[in-house]
């Protein structure tokens, strides 16, 4: 039998109801492993103290309601450090908010709390979610559990590493350009970026407001579906959320049409990653699914489109960190000195780089040349994906062009780091849902490393993603 902390949500919920162990046993076992491993992996910035009331309430609920109790009841969940829990520190892994305590609770936390979920701690991340390796955290680097000399991906690297290393049963993160899916790929877990508006952003620290979305990192596709359904729903505090009656349940065929944009896979993907991708597609084909070539010509420009729109939105959102209202405050001789000292000392190099880039593309004389052109190209990209979905049910690519890279390998080359997001940014630009599911591993330095396959679906078609994700999991068992 698996150890309690190694179980999935489904397995742990079943064991709790079968009285194999108690909620407190599950909490203690998971927290103990998290504490023991954290000195090495550094997935958590903080492990929360045991909440005896929440544990006892969850146990009573299971004892009273049995199988009718919510499946998340009593399940320990890790939370990315940019998602607010009232009274808890929420630093976004930045010196700017090192001592900030949340004054309210995010809707996604309230939803899980209503289901009886327990919160283990806040996980490390790239500073303000800007990065693809969790190397930009102001408080230290999270390590990949499969090879501690390598990155876990980012920006939700702490949540991904905690899930992969069984330091939690599951976790939640945020995804602005692949920040759930890319670390899921590099650590061998399942990562879902929901449809934009499916999940409330109230209580998520904003980076790119038209791109951000909260989603789950889990050990299986079934667990991803469970967490997604708990998180999804209309929220009056977030007007971008989709009303429940406009989120229909789709009929999913037993065999699916899987689109493959071959043209964008010809360059930049490691050969063994591409081989695993093709092997996975062939295995799906043998199960009766159809592989269809699709054309997405504007996809070639997705990365530059993203790295214009995202910094522009970030530079606007980050104007609030001025040393006056909250967070770090440094004082100089003049008001301008206050701004310069606060933002220079509070923000790390990557955050400063993106703020400056965003301010530039929004500036007079350049907003037409860059920002508005990027928005026009974004609309074309959406149209191309919608046209492709008239022929196929999902579109498949590798999640990342390579497995986990070594620390420092790309941190001094921003363009090389940004290329890690080449396949993931499109789902954020189009607002469509996408999932990363582990494929078979590749080797680096004689060590097996995980890689993922990504599927993108039309708006509000997460059910299709779960179906194809389960199909991939089944092929890995053959």
Main sheet: strand order: 1-3-2-4-6-5-10-13-9-7-8
Shape: globular
Unreliable segments of 5+ consecutive residues: none
CATH superfamily of one domain: Amidase signature (AS) domain
Architecture (CATH level 2) name of one domain: Alpha-Beta Complex
Task: Indicate the percent of residues in helices.
Answer: 25-40%
Strand content: 5-15%
What gap, in angstroms, lies between the N and C termini?
22 Å
Description:
The chain is α/β, with parallel strands linked by helices. The chain has a domain of 243 residues: Amidase signature (AS) enzymes, CATH 3.90.1300.10. Helix content is 38%, strand content 13%. It is built from 15 helices and 13 strands. The protein has an 11-stranded mixed sheet with strand order 1-3-2-4-6-5-10-13-9-7-8, sandwiched between helices. The protein has a two-stranded antiparallel ribbon with strand order 11-12. A hairpin with a 2-residue loop joins β11 and β12. α7 packs antiparallel against α15, α9 packs across α11 and α9 crosses α12. The radius of gyration is 21 Å and the shape is globular.
In short:
By secondary structure, this protein is an alpha/beta fold. It has helices at about 10-15, 25-40, 50-65, 105-115, 155-165, 180-185, 220-230, 270-285, 300-315, 335-345, 350-360, 365-390, 415-420, 425-430, 460-475; strands at about 45, 75-80, 120-125, 170-175, 190-195, 215-220, 255-260, 290-295, 395-400, 435-440, 440-445, 445-450, 450-455. Helix content is about 40%, strand content about 15%.
């Amino acid at each position: 039998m698996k150890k309690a902390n190694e179980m999935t949500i489904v397995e742990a919920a079943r064991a709790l109801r079968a009285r194999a162990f108690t909620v407190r046993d599950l909490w203690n076992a998971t927290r103990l492993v998290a504490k023991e491993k954290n000195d090495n992996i550094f997935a958590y910035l903080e492990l929360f103290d045991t909440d005896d009331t929440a544990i006892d309430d969850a146990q009573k609920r299971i004892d009273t309601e049995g199988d009718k109790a919510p499946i998340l009841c009593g399940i320990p969940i890790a939370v990315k450090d940019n998602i607010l829990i009232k009274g808890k520190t929420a630093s976004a892994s930045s010196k700017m908010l090192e001592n900030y305590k949340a004054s309210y609770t995010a809707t996604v936390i309230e939803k899980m709390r209503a289901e009886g979920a327990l919160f283990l701690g806040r996980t490390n991340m790239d500073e303000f979610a800007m990065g693809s390796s969790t190397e930009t955290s102001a408080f230290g680097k999270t390590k990949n559990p499969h090879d501690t000399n390598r990155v876990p991906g980012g920006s939700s690297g702490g949540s991904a590493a905690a899930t992969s290393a069984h330091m939690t049963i599951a976790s939640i993160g945020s995804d602005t350009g692949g920040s759930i899916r890319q670390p899921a790929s590099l650590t061998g877990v399942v990562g879902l970026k929901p449809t934009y508006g499916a999940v409330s952003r109230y209580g998520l620290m904003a980076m790119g407001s038209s791109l951000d979305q909260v989603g789950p990192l889990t050990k299986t596709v079934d667990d991803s579906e469970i967490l997604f359904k708990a998180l999804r729903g209309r929220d009056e505090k977030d007007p971008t959320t989709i009303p429940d009656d406009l989120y229909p349940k789709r009929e999913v065929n037993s065999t699916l049409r899987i689109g493959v944009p071959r043209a964008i896979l010809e360059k930049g993907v490691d050969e063994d990653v591409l081989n695993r991708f093709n092997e996975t597609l062939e295995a799906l084909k043998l199960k009766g699914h159809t592989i269809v070539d699709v054309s997405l010509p504007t996809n070639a420009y997705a990365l530059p489109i993203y790295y214009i729109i995202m910094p522009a939105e970030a530079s606007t959102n980050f104007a609030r960190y001025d040393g006056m209202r909250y967070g770090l405050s440094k004082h100089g001789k003049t008001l301008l000195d206050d701004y310069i000292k606060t933002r220079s000392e509070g923000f790390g190099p990557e955050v400063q780089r993106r703020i400056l880039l965003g301010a530039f593309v929004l500036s007079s004389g350049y907003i037409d040349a860059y920002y508005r052109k990027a928005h026009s190209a974004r609309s074309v990209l959406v149209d191309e994906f919608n046209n492709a979905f008239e022929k196929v049910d999902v579109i498949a690519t590798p999640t990342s062009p390579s497995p986990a890279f070594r620390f420092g390998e790309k941190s001094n080359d921003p363009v090389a780091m940004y290329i890690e997001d080449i396949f993931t940014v499109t789902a954020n630009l189009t607002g469509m849902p996408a999932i990363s599911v582990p494929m078979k591993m590749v080797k680096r330095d004689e060590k097996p490393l995980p890689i993922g396959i990504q599927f993108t679906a039309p708006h509000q078609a997460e059910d299709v993603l779960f179906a194809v994700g389960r199909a991939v999991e089944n092929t890995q068992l053959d």
